Amino acid sequence: MTSLRVITVGAGYFAAFHHEAWQRHPETTLTAVVDTDLDRAQGVGVAAFATLSEALSAGSVDIIDIAVPPVAHAALVRQALAVKPRAIICQKPFGTSLDEARTLAAEARAAGTPLIIHENIRFQPWYRKAQALIEDGTLGDIHQITFRFRTGDGRGPEAYLDRQPYFQTMPRLLIHETAVHWIDTFRYLLGPIEGVYADLRKMNPVIAGEDAGHVVFTFGDGKRAFFDGNRLLDHKTDNPRLTFGEALIEGTAASLTLTGDGSLSLRRFGEQDLTLALAPTTYTGFAGDCVYALQNHVVAALHGRAEFENEASDYLTVREAEEAIYRSAEEKRWVAL
Q1: 54-91, pLDDT tens digit by residue?
Q2: pTM beyond 0.70
């Protein structure tokens, strides 16, 4: 099978996980990396270019992977659509606004090019296993999911500066940058979100945006999900950036507990004993190797082995939920989607 040719735009902190995963995949070849910091791009070890135009002029491409901040998404997506690759991947949170995201999704749909949002948390192995157990009825009817986000990296005047310093100046942080992952994961596990209620707060005075808060998600069939986020607190783990916290998925027949080592434990209703549903293991790559898993999903879809998840037009519901959360926090009321 011919290897799929990939160009990645971006050579920053998180883009490095993209590069490594593409280079490891047996069905892809990372042919070029684009970054305005050419030295940084050259450090990846493949052809490096300062602009996407230069990279596109140098050879053909199957997948364009955009791994840069939202302010650059629109121009790069449009430039990518113009050359009609087989697929485009764009980093979340997808555009600078909901209106821009809607426009880009419509343009991709009109061009007939799959535009996939790089929403990787749903591809973590514990959530894929949880979804399988939900689908096969092991948990019975799901009543609710709770996720406690606890990274412990948001304390003091030096918070975030060693890895992602722009976190300090983002006017929207916890929800816009981080909780969108679990908005998407909740809808992956439970279906369409009906409405939200949010209480957000800023705990560290040196940052611009919110870094703690609670969000209740309602679903049309009565299910609930609860996101409890606090970047100043931690959880029991050797690696706070593996699961980013702890989860409880509760059904009428059984419940699942996710702990910081990446394990899933199942307890059947009325019983005390726990059964290991997913054992902890050592993963290559980021957070359960979810970047690789997402990329592998895109490759599989291009080869007809899967259907695309999180195309831009579908992902708009996540951006809509994000806006509803901020509106709910501001107006102190439940907001319908």
Answers
A1: 999 998 999 999 999 899 999 999 999 999 999 999 99
A2: yes
Q: What is the distance between the alpha carbons of residues 102 and 323, in angstroms, rounded to a whole number?
A: 13
CA angle 19, 22, 24 (to 5 degrees): 105
Tell me the pLDDT of the chain averaged across its residues: 96
Give per-residue pLDDT as tens, 90-114.
Answer: 999 899 999 999 999 999 999 999 9
pLDDT digits (tens, 9 = 90+) for 36-58: 999 999 999 999 999 999 999 99
Q: Is the pLDDT of residue 1 over 70?
A: no
Residue linked to tokens 């970054």 = 35
Set out the domains of the chain in order of their start, with CATH numbers.
4-118 (3.40.50.720), 122-286+316-336 (3.30.360.10)
